[in-house]
Design goal:
Blueprint lengths: L18 E4 L9 H16 L3 E4 L11 H14 L5 E2 L15 H13 L3 E4 L3 H13 L15 H9 L5 E4 L6 E5 L3 E5 L7 E4 L7 H11 L4 E5 L6 H14 L8 E5 L2 E2 L15 H7 L3 H9 L18 H7 L10 E2 L2 H14 L2 H14 L9 H15 L5 H12 L9 H7 L2 H15 L9 H15 L4 H13 L7 H8 L1 H11 L1
Parallel strand pairs: 1-2, 2-3, 9-10, 11-12
Antiparallel strand pairs: 4-5, 5-8, 6-7
Helix pairs in contact: 1-10, 6-7, 9-11, 12-13, 12-14, 13-14, 16-17, 16-18, 16-20, 17-19
The chain binds glutamic acid.
Glutamic acid binds next to loops.
Length: 510
């Protein structure tokens, strides 16, 4: 049996310049868990004045795709998580797409074989299954039993003559593995639980088990932050680092690892990539602000330290960076709460000034076909006047689109919500609309058409003269002119809509 070496490779020191990374696989739509990992790694790098590497792990041609790759870049840019090295920006350790680094992995695998640190294994799937079942039945660990560790070259040749294609397995040194997790503290995996594992498939395809630590080593990554779901691969990666030091791959140190807590969704089940609330692009479409979403993602396992006993959960990235101590990350599962996420976003909407709010709203109005691209000067003026009316009332930008539709929609495309029409524009409602029309016709030609004159006229006609309660008085007018019971404040809305359009809509409702 090849002797297991016992490496004495040091773990990276606390004073080493930090290099952190985010290295997703481009499968499917970018999801919330990914963004949380990216954010924490990014904040960690920035907190320590270090470098942030963005690498793409696309070695599985059957699952990875270009569209998903582009979406990942798009989402990282939208979130504003910039990287110092990586795809598109380049850097000294490129290329940063694993699909372009296949020769690197082939070389490392070969060197591991040559050094006797890995070996070819010829077991068929059925043989492996049989032995696993037997091990389970006997109460032994069911991982690989090492049967092909020490095949002679004759035995190997005989398997090859049978037409078997070998996988390459890394030979785990027989020892326990302990590391000091940045989030969870010391963790030990017993030797019996970490068996020899496959690093290259029979078809020659290198696996995550090899490519990820190889690149982390070659790119000088000092701190690996990632989801708890990968915790079990860490002892294997540490073993590989020890092997790398022997064959001269990397920089001769083992990185620190930190495993971020699970994110739980509905019903206290782990949030899955496939859950609708996982889909990051959905957040952008619904009008989340990147700063709002990032703030909420930061709260999935972390919080700003309280100041004088005061907790604060609304903060910006600029505030997060200096405060981001990894030791504050809570190892317990975090709960994803969509309502809270929306509320946090609403608070960030409130933090924008009106001009900035208009900038953020414009693409959503454009997507709804309500303003031109680029927005015209007239539309911009209307938006600037209208934005303050929705500023306090929305959590998501798309809510503003719904509220402001009445203002931007072409007159022939204006319509009234049918449920609201049924409720508000019955006989009684139309009577109110008729009175409002008469009152409003009287203003605006010689007097000014303004919020104050509109309010004055409607109060006299509907509240004083008809004796209606304000809610009953203004509901029908609101539905007739804005198309919905949910709109910005009525008098301001009518002022912005203008006299002609307001009166036309009241007439049409009759
Ligand atoms: N490509 C891996 C993933 O997306 C990276 C895991 C890691 O950070 O090591 O799960």
């Amino acid at each position: 049996m090849t002797e297991s070496f016992t490496g004495t490779v040091p773990t990276v020191g606390d004073d080493a310049p930090v290099v952190a990374r985010f290295c997703p696989s481009p499968t499917g739509n970018p999801h919330v868990g990914m963004a949380r990992t990216a954010l924490f790694s990014w904040a960690f790098a920035r907190h320590h004045g270090g470098r942030f590497v963005f690498r793409i792990e696309d070695t599985d041609a059957s699952r990875d795709n270009q569209e998903s790759y582009e979406l990942l870049l798009d989402v990282m840019r939208w979130l504003g998580l910039d990287w110092d090295e990586g795809v598109e920006v380049g850097g000294p350790n490129g290329p940063y797409r694993q699909s372009e680094r296949m020769d690197v992995y082939a070389d490392v695998a070969q060197r591991l074989l040559d050094a006797g640190l890995a070996y070819k294994a010829y077991d068929t799937a059925e043989e492996l299954q049989e032995r696993r079942d037997a091990a389970r039945a006997a109460g032994r660990p069911s991982g690989y039993d090492g049967l092909h560790r020490d095949l002679t070259s004759e035995q190997q040749a005989a398997y090859e003559a049978e037409g078997r294609q070998p996988v390459i397995r890394f030979m785990m040194p027989a020892k326990d593995w302990t590391f000091d997790d940045l989030v969870r503290g010391p963790i030990t995996f017993g030797a019996e639980n970490v068996q020899d594992f496959v690093i290259v498939r029979a078809n020659g395809q290198p696996l995550y088990t090899l490519t990820n630590p190889t690149d982390d080593a070659l790119m000088g990554i000092t701190h690996v932050l990632r989801g708890e779901d990968i915790l079990s691969s860490t002892p294997r990666q540490i073993a590989l680092y020890e092997a790398f030091a022997q064959i001269g791959v990397g920089q001769g140190f083992i990185p620190r690892f930190g495993h971020l807590p699970y994110v739980m969704g509905q019903g206290n089940k782990k949030l899955s990539k496939r859950d609708p609330e996982s889909n990051l692009l959905g957040y952008r479409e619904q009008g989340f602000l990147p700063e709002g979403l990032l703030n909420y993602l930061a709260l999935l396992g972390w919080s700003l330290p309280s100041v004088d006993g005061v907790e604060r959960d609304i903060f910006t990235l600029a505030e997060m960076v200096p405060a981001f101590e990894i030791s504050r990350v809570n190892p317990n599962p975090a709960r994803f709460d969509l309502k809270k996420c929306e509320a946090v976003n609403g608070d960030h909407v409130r933090l924008l000034d009106v001009d900035e709010l208009c900038v953020r709203l414009a693409p959503h109005l454009q997507a709804a076909g309500l303003v031109h691209e680029p927005i015209t000067a007239d539309e911009h003026a209307t938006l600037t006047a209208a934005a303050p009316l929705v500023h306090e009332r929305i959590s998501l930008l798309t809510e503003a689109v719904a509220m402001l539709r009445f203002l931007f929609v072409d007159e022939d495309a204006f319509s009234i919500d049918e449920t609201d029409r049924a409720k508000q524009l019955d006989d009684k409602g139309r009577q109110v609309v008729g009175a409002a029309l008469a009152a409003l016709e009287a203003i605006g030609e010689t007097t000014e058409w303004s919020c104050a004159t509109i309010e004055g006229a409607l109060r006299v006609a509907l509240v004083d003269e008809m004796g209606l309660k304000p809610r009953l008085a203004f509901g029908p007018v609101r539905v007739a002119t804005t198309g919905s019971r949910i709109s910005p404040p009525l008098f301001e809305s009518l002022e912005l809509l203008g006299r002609t359009r307001s009166l036309d809509r009241l007439r049409a409702a009759l």
